[in-house]
Amino acid sequence: MRQKLARVIGGVAMLALVAGGTACSSGSDDEASGGDGCGSKIAFFGALTGSSAALGINEKNGVKLAVEKYNKENADCKVELAELDSQGSPDQAPGLAQKAIDDAKLLGIVGPAYSGESEAAGPLFNEAGLVTITPSATRPSLAQQGWKTFFRAVGNDLSQGPAAGTYIKNVMKADKVYVIDDQSAYGAGLADEVKKVLGSAVVGSDKVQGEGKQTEFSGVVTKVKAAGVKAVFFGGYYQEAGLIRKQLTAAGVTAPMVVGDGSNDPAYITTAGAAAAEGTILTCPCAPAAEARGTFVEEFKALNGADPGTYSDTAYDAANILLAGIKAKKTTRADLLEFVKNYSGEGVASSYKFVEGGELDPAQVKVWAFKVQGGKVVPDQEIPKA
To answer: What is the crossing angle of helices 296-304 and 53-73, to 10°?
Structure first.
């Protein structure tokens, strides 16, 4: 889900800095994209408003911390942070991607945050040669498109889905499971992987609408209740997950719900209500952000006034990979792309090395189960690899 940052000293500016500490100017767009890196930008791309904003804000605040720390250590040659609010919508992603591409100062992107918007924007970024590192988009097919600019700082649903299924089967020992998804690229893909593991234990499945388009789920609630299941799995985001849990509880369904990382946020509890949410299992191809290495947790809280949430740490790490490239004078898009491709290093959430398709080295992938307990999301256990 870290690199020690040093001062950015590049090109002709090196002699001036060494001789007298002269500050470099931000310069023109052309200079920022191939000069000393002063005034260049990185961006966060994800939902900052709308029904899926909580996870995006978690990530943006991690990127914000990385940039602020970098600029304190490089006060005479700063990098800017651009915020691209997708509202989690694949429909908005291409326009935002083009906006990023057209900004000559922008060298790299943390995001897109979600799988659907990644599918929509990925071809444009690839054509433009603009490197992206997603801290949270987990659909496996994203790494199979032949995009040279796509990198992923977490495991994909081929790790999370089977792990969630394994938890339901071996820890919860549920032999009758109902599987629901929101028809998104992320939610449907995750649900499919869970079904593969559970096999005949899946006694029913259904689809709902995501992105805040559906708020009343009596149809699926009726089917779940009639099936007499021991567990319910939902692939999708916290807004729908919370409402489904709330309505299941109101109908007298006590079977615990298991949800993926798209619902792994306190906003799920707010939506469902604390009593209904209690006992929910939330999986994530990430370790607990509160257990991130070094001083990350304290620094994040000091800057943002809140504890880090799901993927705050991986977004911070992704930003620092881009910033390390700029520090190393990789100040064209092509050079920064090559830097990320060959990157190997430690972050606060994990160790990072990218393999085929821009995937995180499988050896670094961990999947955790979290649990709603006492009205909070707390770590439960790391789920062993099958």
So the answer is: 100
In angstroms, what CA-CA distances link 224 with 236, 248, 320?
A: 17, 8, 44
Q: Which residue is it, tokens 């910033």? A: 323
| % of the chain residues with pLDDT over 90 | 82
Residue 13, Cα to own-chain centre: how many angstroms?
A: 36
User: What is the spatial distance between Cα 142 and Cα 155, in angstroms, rounded to a whole number?
Assistant: 12
How far is residue 311's CA from residue 180's CA, in Å, rounded to a whole number?
A: 24
> What confidence tens digit (pLDDT) does each residue in 9-21 have?
333 333 233 333 3
Give the Cα-Cα-Cα angle 343, 111, 185 (nearest 5 degrees): 115
Helix, strand, or coil (residue 33): coil
Asked if residue 342 lies in contact with residue 260, where contact means CB atoms within 8 angstroms, the answer is: no
Please report, as a single letter, which amino acid is at residue 174: A
pLDDT digits (tens, 9 = 90+) for 129-185: 999 999 999 999 999 999 999 999 999 999 999 999 999 999 999 999 999 999 988
Continuous H helices in the chain: 13-20, 29-32, 53-73, 93-102, 115-128, 157-166, 185-198, 218-227, 238-250, 266-272, 274-277, 296-304, 312-327, 333-341
pTM score: 0.82
DSSP state of 204: E
Burial status of residue 263 (CB atoms within 10 A of its CB: 0-12, 13-18, 19 or more): buried
* pLDDT band at residue 68 using 50, 70 and 90 as cut-offs: very high
Task: Tell me the pLDDT tens digit for each residue of 298-329.
Answer: 999 999 999 999 999 999 999 999 999 999 99
Beta-carbon neighbour count of residue 275 at 10 Å?
10
Across the chain, what does the average pLDDT equal? 90
Structure tokens at 138: 């987990």
- Single out the residue of 152, 369, 353, 208 nearest to residue 281, CA to CA: 369
Cis previous bond, 308, omega within 30 = no
Looking from the CA of 205 toward its CB, the CA atoms found within 13 Å total: 19
If one counts every other C-beta atom within 10 angstroms of the C-beta of residue 114, the result is 30
Longest CA span, the chain:
78
With 0-12 / 13-18 / 19 or more C-beta atoms within 10 angstroms meaning exposed / middle / buried, residue 40 is buried
- 284 has a pLDDT exceeding 70: yes
